[in-house]
Write a structure and sequence with these properties.
With about 700 residues, the chain is mainly β. The protein folds into 5 domains: about 150 residues, Jelly Rolls (Sandwich), CATH 2.60.120.260; about 170 residues, Galactose-binding domain-like (Jelly Rolls, Sandwich), CATH 2.60.120.260; about 50 residues, no CATH class; about 140 residues, Sandwich (Immunoglobulin-like), CATH 2.60.40.2230; about 100 residues, Immunoglobulin-like (Sandwich), CATH 2.60.40. It is about 10% helix and about 45% strand. It is built from 10 helices and 53 strands. Strands 32, 33, 35, 37, 38, 41 and 45 form a 7-stranded mixed sheet that branches. Strands 1, 3, 4, 19, 29 and 31 form a 6-stranded antiparallel sheet that branches. Strands 6, 8, 9, 12, 13 and 15 form a 6-stranded antiparallel sheet that branches. A hairpin with a 3-residue loop joins strand 39 and strand 40.
Length: about 700
């Protein structure tokens, strides 16, 4: 049965541009999936349904092995080399590749000039996992190449599915599925044809080992199966804001997508992620140094002194090599000059370097032209690119019409990745289109912020008293360049509703009270002020509020009021020398309890139904709790009996408020008297209770 779950995003695709808000859609008519990206591993089907990308479904008549190299797979023979066959490296590579090429002119020959070709190993990496139920191999058998007599009849056939639990340090753990001392083809096959049937299962790696010294060759290894592949991925090309808009940077808004699922939807997943960068190359490509080739690679001072002595290369200062002792003397005399020293590691054959023979950065195109044995492992460039984001929540996306992009902004470049995962050969997913909104130009090239607690004498501090009202200083340094918009509105996320905003300063000057305003909710406050447009401007806001736990973070976003632009998030850092925190988080003094400010109001109260003081409001602060913990709120009679349970559940750090109507759990009015309100919290460190009294009168 096929289950379909689809989202049509017409609202976003046709929305008018408001302010500098832009929309980018991948997978539509303007930017097709094939032109807009690629499929690592080569197991995405671009043609099954117009406008969609589907996970590849194997046709039972399709020879999976033919796409081995296109998917990034390979064929190797770990215990032979060109000299084994008295041939060149190029010819050796050609013969290995010929096993999965479909070219019947080329074969892996193990019968010429050889006496005992026993124990030779051939290993095939298909480049991806497939559902496989048949493996076939045979020698050349045409009139031109009549070598049917050299069929490999004595062999051991092993497989590995490539799952993490069946790999050790990147090497497959093979499992034998067939061992033959003298294979005899059934009457339905030619004598030279070797066909092995196995139960349908996931396979990525195949190993064939010859068992007897008789000469043999393999023209082709063919692999057949059916079902969806269990893992597939699609990556967009790097998306360039400047190419799209002419602006240097963009601020990301929401991302959305449409998806289908085939088979049991609980058996498959679709994961959408993003990453952003400051250049157009998110990966660093490496090559393996050839035999006899040596070089050096620049490393950090820390990494250099952790190297074995034989791997420590030259230390260079102002173009000249210096000794280690000279470096330490320089570091002692002038740390600034010592920072100019460059350290190099010696690289030997087999080591990987990120440049070509002429020391130019190795491009993806140059890397792909290298022979397989000289291709190093590409690595993410975390200096210029963020890691892939956590997967975006599909249910939230459906509910909200999109989810906010969490990758860093503003940035010039963004990339999208879709991962398809399946636990069944009969289940898979598909994506129709992916879109996202962004603003360009941004409010600023960079907004750096830090928050401090103002103690007596306005001395900035790292630490606040949990549950107590404190004065805070929020500082934002704006790096505004070119066509950046500036900003006149700051939204700050808070753990509780703040008491007040006392002051707004721009570049050290207090803004007159009639030129700024503020408003607050339990989750954030907003300040409006004269537009900040100048580079290196410093905005500072003094407000009074309460933090409830250690590490409370005050995230903030800046924008131009009414512009329709996407607000730009403030990043933590050194906004001003007068504030030492370099952080948007506030510490609290540890050691206090978890419950604070428990009170009942009005007290006494009169729950007689006359509309005046009929309810008592119970409020308390839950402190220093970073996750939901069990909490109960109960009302006790003077006798110690529980008369009303107001709350039984889980809570995290927050200000809580609930009401009691003077009735017991059966809905009956309680007699007049003094009652106890008990709040109990259970944490990993124990159980804590707080008590207050409330009086009932009629």
């Amino acid at each position: 049965m096929r289950y379909i779950v689809t989202l049509i995003c017409v609202l976003f695709l046709n929305q008018p541009v408001q302010g500098k808000l832009r929309t980018f859609v991948l997978g539509g008519e303007e930017r097709s999936w094939e032109k807009g990206g690629y499929a690592p591993g080569g197991v995405i089907d671009f043609n099954r349904e117009p406008g969609w990308i589907w996970v590849k479904q194997v046709d039972p008549n399709e020879n999976i092995a033919l796409g081995t190299y296109k998917r990034g797979g390979k064929v190797i023979s770990p215990n032979t080399q060109p000299s084994t066959f008295s041939i060149s490296w190029d010819e050796y590579d050609r013969r290995l590749k010929g096993i999965v090429s479909g070219d019947h002119e080329v074969a892996f020959e193990a019968w010429k000039k050889l006496l005992k070709p026993v124990g030779f190993i051939i290993q095939i990496d298909l480049g991806a996992r497939f559902g496989v139920d048949k493996i076939r191999f045979y020698p050349r058998h045409s009139d031109k190449h009549p070598y049917g007599e050299y069929a490999l009849k004595s062999f051991e056939l092993s497989i590995c599915d490539g799952s993490p639990e069946n790999m050790v340090e990147g090497r497959p753990i093979y499992r034998v599925v067939r061992r033959e001392d003298n294979y005899v083809a059934p009457d339905t096959l030619e004598p030279w044809d070797v066909v092995v049937h196995i139960p349908l299962q996931y396979v990525r790696f195949i190993q064939i080992v010859s068992l007897k010294p008789r000469g043999w060759e393999i023209d082709e290894v063919e692999v057949y199966g059916k079902g969806y592949v269990p893992e597939a991925a699609y990556e967009s090309k790097v998306i360039d804001v400047k190419e799209l808009t002419g602006e240097d940077l963009g601020v990301w808004g929401k991302i959305w997508w449409a998806q289908n699922k085939d088979g049991d939807p609980s058996k498959s997943q679709i994961l959408v992620r993003t990453r952003t960068g400051t250049d157009d190359t998110p990966m660093i490509y490496y090559r393996v140094l050839k035999p006899g080739e040596e070089d050096t690679l620049r490393v950090s001072e820390r990494d250099y002194f952790q190297l074995d002595p034989e791997k420590q290369g030259p230390i260079i200062y102002r173009g000249k090599e210096i000794r280690e002792e000279e470096f330490y003397l320089l570091k002692e005399r002038s740390p600034d000059e010592a920072a100019k020293v460059k350290f190099y590691r010696r690289m030997y054959p087999g080591d990987e370097v990120p440049f070509d023979e002429k020391h130019r950065p190795l491009t993806k195109e140059a890397w792909e032209k290298l022979k397989l044995e000289y291709r190093g492992t590409p690595r993410p460039d975390y200096e210029h690119w963020s890691p892939w984001s956590p997967p975006y929540n599909y249910e939230e996306m459906l509910r909200e019409g999109g989810v906010p992009i969490v990758s860093p902004a503003p940035r010039r470049y963004i990339q999208i990745r879709v991962d398809f995962l399946s636990k069944s050969l009969d289940a898979a997913g598909a994506v129709d289109s992916i879109g996202f909104t962004f603003s360009a130009p941004p409010a600023a090239h960079r907004l750096v912020g830090e928050v401090a607690v103002l103690k007596e004498g306005n001395v900035p501090s790292f630490t606040a008293e949990a549950g107590e009202v404190e004065r805070f200083l929020y500082s934002v340094l704006a790096e505004i360049k070119g066509r950046d918009e500036g900003f006149d509105k700051l939204k700050v996320e808070t753990p509780t509703k703040i008491d007040s905003v006392e002051e707004v300063r721009i570049d050290g000057k207090e803004v007159p009270r009639d030129r700024w305003s503020w408003e607050a909710t339990p989750d954030y406050f907003v300040v409006r002020f004269p537009r900040v447009r100048k580079d290196s401007s410093l905005l500072q806001v003094v407000f009074r509020g309460t933090v409830l736990r250690y590490g409370t973070t005050f995230r903030a976003w800046a924008t131009v009021e009414g512009s329709g632009d996407i607000p730009q998030e403030v990043e933590p850092g050194d906004a001003t020398p007068e504030v030492p925190t370099n952080s948007l988080s506030v510490r609290t003094a540890l050691g206090k309890g978890f419950i604070a400010s428990l009170r009942a109001s009005p007290n006494p109260f009169t729950p007689n139904g006359d509309g005046t003081n009929d309810l008592a409001y119970i409020s308390y602060n839950l402190l220093q709790v970073t996750k939901d913990v069990p909490v109960s709120v109960r009302v006790y009679a003077p006798s110690g009996e529980v008369v009303r349970s107001l709350m039984e559940g889980s809570q995290a750090s927050k200000v809580y408020r609930m009401s009691w109507d003077g009735r017991d759990d059966d809905g009956e009015r309680v007699p007049p008297g003094v009652y106890l309100v008990v709040v109990q919290v259970s944490t990993d460190s124990g159980t804590e209770r707080a008590v207050c009294t409330v009086s009932v009168v009629y």
